[in-house]
């Protein structure tokens, strides 16, 4: 057997269009022998993204979720296209915040509710 003289082959996934919004998304292999659809050309700071949504690129082109908290302040990551897709509802990233928003919406409704209507006035007799 000969020595491998080529560079290691990167796992190319290519791009596809999102079926919801029609924008391009990067199809990238994961460490788990699966694929994830990532937002193209977006590399936010990892500490700005919730731990379970940070995808870190490895040297062979694959990605893995990076749940280290707190990450290095200069670490960059990728995010799934579904989080940025304008045609899909944003997932519940922070359940306690969603609950708080729901409770605040109910508070606003109670605050704006004028209360029960006053009793109708007596109509004068037509007789």
From TrEMBL:
Residue ranges, annotated region (Disordered): 104-127
UniProt-listed InterPro entries: DUF6083 (IPR045729)
Ranges of Basic and acidic residues composition bias in the record: 104-113
Protein name: DUF6083 domain-containing protein
